[in-house]
Amino acid sequence: MFTNEYQWPYSNEFGKEESVTSDILVLGGGLAGCFAAISAAQRGKKVVLVEKGATKRSGSAGTGFDHYESACTNPCSRVTPKEIAEAYVDEQDHYSNGILHYIGCRESYDRLLDLERFGGKIRDVEDEFKGAEFRDDETKFMFAYDYKNRYTLRVWGSTFKPALYNELKRLGVTIYDRTEATALLTKIVDGKKRGTGAIGMNVHTGKLMVFQAKAVILAMSRPARVWLFNSDLVGLCEFRPTQSIGSGHAMGWRAGVEFAMMEKSVKGEFSAAGRSFPPYGAGNNHNTWYAATLVDARGVEIPYLDRDGNVLETVSQRYYPVEGQKFFLKGGVIDEPKYEYRGPETMPFDELMKRGYQLPFYADLSRMPEMERKVIWGMMVGEEGKTKIPILQNYTKRGFDPTEHALQCYGSGWQSASFCPRSGSFSAHPEASCTTGI
Ligand SMILES: Cc1cc2nc3c(=O)[nH]c(=O)nc-3n(C[C@H](O)[C@H](O)[C@H](O)COP(=O)(O)OP(=O)(O)OC[C@H]3O[C@@H](n4cnc5c(N)ncnc54)[C@H](O)[C@@H]3O)c2cc1C
User: Fold this and answer.
1) What mean pLDDT is predicted for residues 150-157?
2) Domains in the chain, ordered, with CATH?
3) Which residue, judged by its Cα, is nearest atom 2 of ligand 1?
4) In the structure, what pLDDT confidence band is assigned to residue 263 with cuts at 50, 70 and 90?
5) Of 177-181, 312-316, 344-348, 369-373, which gets the smallest average pLDDT?
6) Whose C-alpha lies nearest to ligand 1, atom 5?
7) How confident is the model over 115-131, as a mean pLDDT?
8) pLDDT digits over 333-381, tens only?
9) Separation of 229 CA from ligand 1 center, angstroms?
10) Which of 221, 251, 261, 388, when mutated, tests ligand 1's pocket best, judged by the most ligand atoms within 8 Å of its CB?
């Protein structure tokens, strides 16, 4: 029997209805939806934003992210937007949209400066990493992956959603949090179907919402969680947020919306199960943890190679293109990167097995220079979505010290996801990991 303590804390509004009108209706309050709403409000439009969760922390970026890609126009960058956009398209065998990539490469730095104006943190203003190889001491920007070309920034992504939320409020955007859009409203104008709004429901109270607008922007992210067999198993927990179930795609489809760019937005991303939570916490070495020193079960260091297969002698070398290579791509080119854009990575897994390296492997930050260790454990793991509390905070509380301990991980370099044992991934558990110092 339920006591009062367990009663539903919200009023019951089933059967009630509220109508809302605006110039622009934005469905989904993630990064894309917030920026769309801000941009429309800056142009003097009356904007309504509808978000299934709580805009301040919802969506893929709600818990943060650690690196900001394609900031090709930042003052320290040595690549042009065209070069990186072309490389992305080439990397994806031209099965992609060059215009979109170009816009991203050309404008993402501008949006980063917007985020800073709104209150997000994008520079090492406290000089915590002063003198580090990946930091520009003049701008206080910090870079990830390719330290020569400096077009990917390390950022304090956990500050971004609250900053966007404050800006939405400042601009007078009306936000309907905890409201799930369920269907689009359309009408025929000049023989063509046009979006005129959406129906939704307050997920706390059950109230029916009817939103009408001159234009509707769909920003409800991609379908990512739809193919997992059992969402209850923590070991299978998806990388993307629980809300990413493709409802935007579904309601667009039902309303007869014309779809574009599906080859890009859906390719290989129906489920990111390979990049699910456990490897993310304890050893993702293509992203947050790049390029952590890895050791095998005996404590023997796992070699990093340049793209030509030469063993790299120093940690620093892991962050530079090989001689004769203009730049290397990181982020988005996790599997089988093309030779031209391939960055330093650990020796292939099969080769490691052939040479007698023994599982399990560990990320051993204690063998890295202080700044590299500090930036991975303190900053990247702290800012990356989902890892701040479960990994950095929990492990630290239980005594994990990166100068002494190692964390069991699930792969080596680009292979991190491919041989991750899906069902047996529980050694990411703090107690298991923290007691396995080498
Ligand atoms: C764990 C993690 C780490 C990442 N790290 C990085 C990184 O370091 N660097 C980087 O560049 N990228 C990173 N990314 C990717 C990046 O965060 C996303 O590409 C970006 O945030 C997507 O923004 P979005 O607005 O399209 O989608 P989302 O942020 O997912 O927003 C979609 C919003 O729509 C809402 N919604 C969905 N359905 C409905 C509905 N029916 N009605 C109302 N609202 C709805 C959701 O609640 C959500 O808030 C990471 C992603 C994840 C998951």
Assistant:
1) 97
2) 17-60+163-218 (3.50.50.60), 221-243+254-277 (no CATH), 294-303+343-433 (no CATH)
3) 385
4) low
5) 344-348
6) 65
7) 98
8) 456 788 999 999 888 888 899 999 998 888 899 999 999 999 999 899 9
9) 22
10) 221
Q: Are 328 and 395 in contact (CB under 8 A)?
A: no
**Ligand 1 atom index nearest CA of 200:** 42
> Does residue 291 have a cis peptide bond before it, meaning omega lies within 30 degrees of 0?
yes
Measured in Å, residue 12 CA sits from the centre of ligand 1 at 30
Q: Distance between CA atoms of 96 and 314, rounded to whole angstroms? A: 36
- pTM given for the model: 0.90
Instruction: Tell me what the pLDDT averaged over the chain comes to.
Output: 85
